[in-house]
Amino acid sequence: MARRGVWHLDKMCLFYCEYSGSSRGAREFLTHSFTQLKESSPWLTLDTQIRRGNHPFFLVRYRNGNTRLVDLKNKNLKEIDEHMYFLRNSVGRRTSNPTVRHTSKRPSIQGMWTPMTFVPEDIPIAAFDKLSMDVRLDPPEEPEVIAPSYKTHRTNSNSERKKRSRKEKALAPLSGEAGESLVSRWTGTTSNSAGGSL
What's the rounded Cα separation, in Å, for the pair 117 and 108? Predict the structure, then answer.
């Protein structure tokens, strides 16, 4: 890669075998792409060495002194070209461990990030709910107040609810006056003339 007009790759050497099957792609690279690479990059020192009975590989050296070795075993011509262009266009720095987090000794001048950091100024801060941090552009609606009904029975435990649901299921087929009188006797309520319970 050229930084400030200087290419960082200094020397590239291809090691291969004349007869082995794993070096077939390297031999194709020598016949097809090697001369084009020499013409397109005259600043690069290109070299080849025969190593009989060994797998092919690229050995490159950069201007900063770092070397890199890339295995080319059983690679075809296209894959070797990709490796060659990657090596030519890289700077040659050693790869760093991405799992190590960068920690600074100085805190940020801008301050810590908060959920209000990128909120537009025209939205009032009071429009945000403290728990959910959702923007409420409209005022919150007041909840409907439901008047207590005499027909509803409050239960304090699940067992009472289950008993009541069993009773209601058992009395569901009954309808008419006989059913109403039976329900009133069962639940202990009396029906008035208006049809409601007291």
Answer: 14
Which amino acid type is present at position 27? R
- Give the SS3 label for residue 84: helix
The structure's pTM equals 0.48
SS3 110: coil
Nearest to 29 by CA among 69, 6, 56, 62: 56
Which segments within 17-93 are labelled E, that is strand?
45-50, 57-62, 67-71
Q: List, in order, residues 6 or more apart from 54 with CB less than 8 Å away.
A: 15, 17, 20
Helix axes 77-89, 24-32, angle to 10 degrees: 70
Burial class (CB in 10 A: 0-12, 13-18, 19+), 16: buried
Among residues of the chain, what percentage have pLDDT more than 70?
58
- List pLDDT tens digits, range 134-176: 444 555 566 666 665 555 555 456 666 666 666 666 555 555 5
Element (H, E) at 173: none
| Residues facing residue 62 across a β-bridge | 9
| Contact yes or no for 47/13 (Cβ under 8 A) | yes
Q: What is the per-residue pLDDT across 12-27, written as a single tens digit (0 to 9) for each?
A: 999 999 999 999 999 9
CA-derived radius of gyration, the chain: 41
How far is it, in rounded angstroms, from Cα 89 to Cα 2? 8
Q: What is the pLDDT of residues 30-40, one digit of tens each?
A: 999 998 888 98
Q: What interhelical angle do 176-187 and 158-171 show, nearest 10?
A: 160
